[in-house]
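re: the backbone from monday

yeah here it is again, tokenized this time
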């Protein structure tokens, strides 16, 4: 039998590279072709197809309910200024949006698996430029695919998918539109609640820190010392986000300089944890090199040398909190940061 008479379809050469650099031809193998198509239950059973159609419609309806639920949660459960209130509003919005998105996603997957065509098609490769005849064929294939999907014969599914896809953008658009005209005063980022005499406390316990608590090489995550009842308010959450600090104790002989002259105390330095690149939390400290790493984009700061940037996209050192000790030996701030914390914004001069 000749090569062109292979009953199993086209064949291909298989080559073997020998150790001496020669190439030897071995036996040919047959193109396995497309597997035999096995119809699904919905392809042969009208009742199964209708059942799957109802399931898909229900999933789209669930998506619609999720979108409506997100709008209700947005307007009816507004944050009341407390931590539990903010948490409840966020959870309800998240759950409702998840239901809306998952409804659309599961419906689309179930539709593709049970009702759309499951046949495999093979198309030979051709040049990128197509003739008019080929374009007509492609257009006809799109029409055939639309017909094969069955959406024209299933008005219930058509209505369900249009409703779900039309409603879902409201879950994003309404909160965005309603926020227009809100508080855009970025000047509040210039200052934090740090000030003269404010004690440094461990995050999250709120226990004040004594200088004697820290050994050389130790690191502490720090927040301002405020009454416990204030730490439950929404205002505190906002202020804490700006005021978080990383405290490091160095051997005074290793301290080259402060970013803010005279801001350290006996080798103890306090720098903002907010990266000056895009605001990620900078909290990975390498004791031997005194380098502080931002995990988001690998900006690296040298806390022994004024927290200057030694690597990465950040352009400015971390703001330094000036510290000293009070009469009881507790670490306290001498003042606020002398520059806005975090990344640049349009009203910032540097």
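seq for it, each position gets an aa:
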């Amino acid at each position: 039998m000749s090569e062109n008479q292979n009953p199993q379809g086209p064949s291909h050469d298989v080559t073997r590279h020998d150790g001496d650099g020669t190439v030897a031809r071995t036996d040919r193998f047959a193109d396995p072709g497309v597997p035999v198509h096995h119809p699904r239950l919905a392809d042969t059973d009208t009742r199964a197809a209708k059942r799957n159609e109802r399931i898909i419609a229900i999933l789209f309806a669930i998506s619609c309910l999720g979108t409506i639920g997100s709008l209700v949660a947005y307007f009816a459960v507004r944050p009341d200024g407390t931590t539990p209130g903010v948490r409840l509003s966020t959870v309800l919005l998240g759950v409702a949006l998840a239901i809306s998105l998952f409804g659309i996603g599961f419906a689309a997957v179930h539709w593709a698996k049970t009702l759309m065509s499951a046949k495999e098609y093979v198309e030979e490769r051709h040049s990128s430029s197509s003739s008019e005849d080929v374009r007509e064929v492609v257009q006809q294939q799109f029409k055939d695919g639309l017909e094969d999907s069955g959406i024209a014969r299933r008005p219930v599914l058509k209505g369900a998918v249009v409703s779900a896809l039309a409603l879902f953008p409201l879950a994003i658009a309404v909160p965005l539109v309603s926020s227009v005209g809100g508080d855009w005063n970025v000047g509040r980022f210039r200052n934090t609640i740090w000030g003269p005499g404010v004690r440094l406390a461990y995050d999250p316990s709120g226990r004040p820190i004594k200088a004697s608590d820290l050994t050389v090489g130790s690191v502490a995550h720090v927040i301002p010392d405020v009454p416990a009842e204030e730490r439950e308010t929404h205002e505190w959450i906002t202020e804490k986000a700006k005021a978080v600090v990383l405290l490091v104790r160095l051997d005074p002989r290793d301290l080259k300089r402060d970013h803010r002259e005279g801001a350290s105390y006996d080798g103890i330095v306090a720098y903002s944890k907010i990266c000056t690149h895009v605001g990620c939390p900078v909290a990975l400290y390498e004791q031997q090199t005194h380098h502080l790493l931002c995990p988001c984009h690998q900006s690296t700061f040298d806390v022994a040398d004024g927290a200057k940037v030694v690597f990465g996209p950040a352009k400015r050192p971390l703001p330094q909190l000036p510290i000293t000790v009070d009469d009881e030996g507790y670490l306290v701030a001498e003042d606020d940061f002398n520059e806005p914390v975090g990344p640049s914004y349009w009203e910032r001069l540097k």
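The helical segments are 41-44, 46-76, 83-114, 132-149, 155-178, 234-243. DSSP finds six helices and 14 strands in the chain.
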